[in-house]
Amino acid sequence: MPGSVVVGVSFAYLGLLFAIAYYGEKRAKQGRSLTNNPYIYTLSIAVYCTSWTFYGSVGKAAKSGLDFLPIYLGPTLVFVVWSLVLAKIIRICKVHRITSIADFISSRYGKNFALGSLATIIAVIGTTPYISLQLKSIATSFNLLAGFGNPDFPIYGNSFGIDTTLIVAIILASFAILFGTRHIEASEHHEGLVAAIAFESLVKLFAFLSVGFFVTFGVFDGFQDLFYKAQAHGLSHLFVIDDDQGYSQWITMTILSMAAILFLPRQFYMTAVENRDETQLRTAAWLFPLYLLVINIFVLPIAIGGKIAFAGVASDADMFVLTVPVHFGQEYLALFAFIGGMSAATSMVIVASIALATMVCNNLVMPLLLRWEWVKVKDQGDLSSLLLAIRRASILIVLLLGYGYFRIASESYSLVTIGLVSFTAAAQFAPAIIGGIFWKGGSSKGALTGLSLGFLVWIYTLLLPSFAQSGWLPINFISDGLFGISFLKPYALFGLKGFDSLSHALFWSMLLNIGGYVVVSLSGKVSPIDRIQGGLFVDMFDNPLGQMDARYWQGTVSITSLQGLVGRFVGTARAERDFQDFARLQNISLNGDDIAGSEMLARAESLLSGAIGSATARVIIGSMIKGENVSVNEVFQILDETTQVIEYSRMLEVKSRELEETSVKLQRANKRLQEFDSLKDDFLSTVSHELRTPLTSIKAFSEILLEGGGVTSDDRHQFLGIIIKESERLTRLIDQILDLAKMEAGRMDWMMGNVDPQVAVKDALATMDGLIKEKNINLILDLPEGIPDVRADPDQLAQVIINVVSNAIKFCRHPGGLIRVNVSEHRRGLLVRISDNGDGILPEHRDFIFDKFHQTRQGSNEMPIGTGLGLAICRQIITFFGGLIWADDSEDGGARISFTIPFASPSLKLVRGGADK
Amino acid sequence: MKRTGRKREWSIALFCAGLLFFFPPILSIFDKPVLVFGLPLAYIVLYGFWALVIIAIAYGARRGPVVRDNSVSRIPPSKYKDLP
Q1: Contact A877, A797 (CB under 8 A)
Q2: A254: Cβ contacts below 8 Å, ≥ 6 apart
Q3: Beta bridge partners of A822
Q4: Which of these, A623, A644, A612, lies nearest to A106 by C-alpha position?
Q5: Which pLDDT tens digit goes with each residue over A683-736?
Q6: Helices A614-626 and A559-570 meet at what angle, rounded to 10?
Q7: A272-275 long-range CB contacts below 8 Å, 24 or more apart?
Q8: Mean pLDDT of successive 10-residue stretches along chain A, which has 917 residues
Q9: Can you say whether residue A153 is alpha, beta or left, with left for phi > 0 and alpha for psi between -120 and 50 degrees?
Q10: Cα nearest neighbour of A224 on chain B
Q11: For residues A428 and A431, what is the distance between their CA atoms, to the nearest angstrom?
Q12: CA dist A225 → A168, A297, B3 (Å)
């Protein structure tokens, strides 16, 4: 086939790719996203299938049978546990606005610059062989197709006087630059790029399936015919995995591919960074393994077809996908296969170079520029063009590195071998990341140690030998070891033999990587910032978006200068638009001279993170606010933690104080309850005692009368008199108890009204007349005329006077008893004093005589008969009238009870409560 | 299989089963250069089991009541557990 046709078709294909990418971008700008669905997402992850899959798998299968499969079984197994690992990584990337795998590691371990740059270096160097593999496959397939049947065609095709591979590299670089670095993306995704990659995944799938169908059903008569013929040709050793070399490489490749699907920089970029919606993972989880299965169905048939077709002829098995159709005269099918292979290679190169360029810019160059202060954050000037320039240069450098490795080393290796070297490098990220999202104890020093050791071992056991085999290093480096020390043979390090070079390298690098990570993490102290980030990453699904740390930005920077700062990285127009959107969303006015609030600062940091990575963004915002550099970052992180702790402890304090107050109140209430309880007990026991005394005498005399014998008529009369008296006492007692209970409960019916004290006192004393005369007591009444009315219940007032006077009578048991009743006006109202010359009250009893059931027992005197409730009732009544009642000594040597009642005049109305009837 | 709400456990179990099946010694049982129904035994078994694993993933990944989103707004339990 003429080279010009191949070149023309290639360019037409690349042009189509441009068109699709452009259309994708346009649709995204119109808000009608083309790529925001799970099927496009799945196809974009299928960037995993590179020319390694397209050409290399067939080459591998032609050599050793089913050995090519682990590279696809490993990812399938990883997708089995997608909800554990992938979902977590994607959520973390979204929340922390991670831009690359190096950013992820740096962010997890305290936004550590050294770690981010080391990861970047590992990613770049580790990916270089892989990129060279793609370039090699494109160049080889191009030369093969254009030069088929022309034995003089040079292996490095010369087009326009330049190496074809270099031209391919430059074209791919320009594509990546055009669609990966058009502008700095702060929050959006590269829609055009994703659309183009998804399209490429379809092309390579259909191209490969077409060749497979042709071989299986065109050349042979279906699968069975193909396999029977293979058996007949003595190719049944291709039906198995174990071709006399054991399973060590099978296991190694499975493990490597499991790491690769997660940690290859381009894979991480497509799966996690470019993910639009976490729920799309649900579909991709099974659809992507299915894609892998389908694209692999025809690998073995094509390999067998090639082996049979080129039996006995020297041929490159890696190119069977092309050469078999050509061999059977299907040139157009071969051309389609060539396009498929090119799509597989270009998609990988483009995505990988963009992912790597982002890393180089965000985690290596920008931090260095900021640190060395070559770029002054506070200076004016647009920095987004600087960022873009760095990224574009990085893309070019990455591709040139790949080209360089291709020229140096790739001639002597098959596609799969080169690819596995890259896989082993990517696997070095596994301990730091898997450890980082499941183990809070991992420290930045541990990760740094593990990564460095693993990377060094990888260089020594895989990269340097590949240089040696291609003559760039003396070949005896492999056979004799470094400086001829056999102990240091790169394929048998420390004398470890019996493994293939890949398993050997994986074993040593992982041993030192994991060992270094774990041991250093465990033995060192975890810094606060490590701990905070570790907590955020490990507890991703437990934390409310993990954004709490942004709240604490506080600064004195105006909105204008903040917007200016962001604008310098993401472009002025974009920054302005975003700030206005944010202001509208938050319902705040965007007054340029105002101080930016903490939400605004967090938003700005978030915008910057999407553009230049989280670590750099934090440094920049921190320095903008405080005018200081890197350490501000850490200070703020620590502040975040302490602020939270303080907040929680303050809440705790408040709660405990409230609790204390409540408990004091409770104690007080409890004490009162206890008092009431004991009062009630006292009351009950006294009442029952008081009731029993008269009952007992009633019962005793009744029994005597019932027996009847020897009881005289006089006795009977006397006994009956006692019974009646005791019954009356009992009735009185019960009445009083009821009255008192009513009064205390506030249910007494008071008949309040204006009462003339003269009438009231006279009436009350009149009822006592008989008793006074009976006891032969002299009553002296001092009752002046013209005393104003008092406000009282007349019956109850009489009751008070009767109670007090009868009390006085009781204690006047000696001959010549004297009772004075003195009524006068007082500033508190009516003052009534009732004194006697009886026993008197000891001063220590004066406070208690108004208590219920208090009965003074003095000396050896016989106890006066009483209920003990009289004075208690008096106090209740007087208190209700708004007066006072008290006891003191009388001038006659006995006791004196005095009480006051307010007058009825309006100005002195002190009556509390009660119904005015 | 019922909806047990324990998909994570199931996925880990399936992962282990996959490793067990795709690794020796089980691998070596069917890794023989013979044709069954005109197809290599290892080819049938590997692709067949692979397909079964994919079906199992699809079965587990269908939208169920166990949605992760509820965890977004949950307060970290450790922070508030001491408060009444």
Answers
A1: yes
A2: A70, A73, A74, A77, B22, B23
A3: A782, A833
A4: A612
A5: 777 777 777 877 888 888 888 888 877 778 888 888 888 888 888 888 888 887
A6: 150
A7: A272/A86, A272/A89, A272/A90, A272/A93, A272/A98, A272/A104, A273/A93, A273/A98, A273/A99, A273/A100, A273/A355, A274/A44, A274/A189, A274/A190, A274/A193, A274/A194, A275/A41, A275/A90, A275/A93, A275/A94
A8: 80 89 85 84 92 88 87 93 89 83 86 87 90 86 72 47 76 83 65 90 94 92 89 83 75 91 92 86 92 93 90 80 88 90 91 90 84 64 78 90 81 71 91 89 89 92 81 72 71 75 89 93 78 74 50 61 76 79 76 71 76 71 53 54 72 87 91 83 77 83 81 82 85 82 78 85 82 83 85 85 84 80 85 84 76 57 59 85 85 84 64 40
A9: beta
A10: B38
A11: 7
A12: 40, 16, 45
Contact A320, A59 (CB under 8 A): yes
C-alpha span between A306 and A311 (Å, rounded): 8
A228 touches chain B (CB under 8 A): yes
Q: pTM of the prediction? A: 0.66
**Partners of residue A558 on adjacent β-strands:** A595
Question: Identity (one letter) of the amino acid at A688?
Answer: S
Contacts of A90 (CB under 8 A, 6+ apart): A271, A272, A275, A278, A281
Mark which residues 14-53 of B lie under 8 Å from A by CB.
14-15, 18-19, 22-24, 27-28, 31-35, 37-43, 46-47, 50-51, 53
Instruction: For residue B4, give how far its alpha carbon lies from the nearest alpha carbon of chain A (Å).
Output: 16
Residues 6+ apart with CB under 8 A from A208: A54, A295, A298, A321, A337, A340
Spacing of C-alpha A90 from chain mean position: 16
Which residue among A228, A285, A652 sits closest to B61, beta carbon to beta carbon?
A285
Nearest C-alpha in B relative to A535: B76
ipTM of the complex, rounded to two decimals: 0.79
Q: How far is A335 from chain B (nearest CA, A)?
A: 29
| Per-residue pLDDT at A44 | 92
CB contact under 8 A, A655 and B68: no
Q: Chain A residue closest to B63 (CA)?
A: A282
Which pLDDT does position A542 carry in this prediction? 65
**Contact between B12 and A76 using a beta-carbon 8 Å cutoff:** no
- How long a stretch of residues is chain A? 917
Are the CB atoms for A618 and A633 separated by under 8 Å?
A: yes
The tokens of A767 are what?
Answer: 């009822």
Q: Which residue has the tokens 């002190």?
A: A910
What does the angle CA A915 – CA A679 – CA A862 come to, to the nearest 5 degrees?
100
Per residue, the 3-state secondary structure of A747-780, as one string, reads CCCCCCEEECHHHHHHHHHHHHHHHHHHHCCEEE
A254 touches chain B (CB under 8 A): yes
Answer whether B15's CB lies under 8 Å from A82's CB. Answer: no
Whose CA is closest to A392, among A356, A348, A343? A356
* B33 → closest Cβ in A77, A84, A239: A239
Q: Which residues of A touch B61 (CB under 8 A)?
A: 82-83, 282-283, 285-286
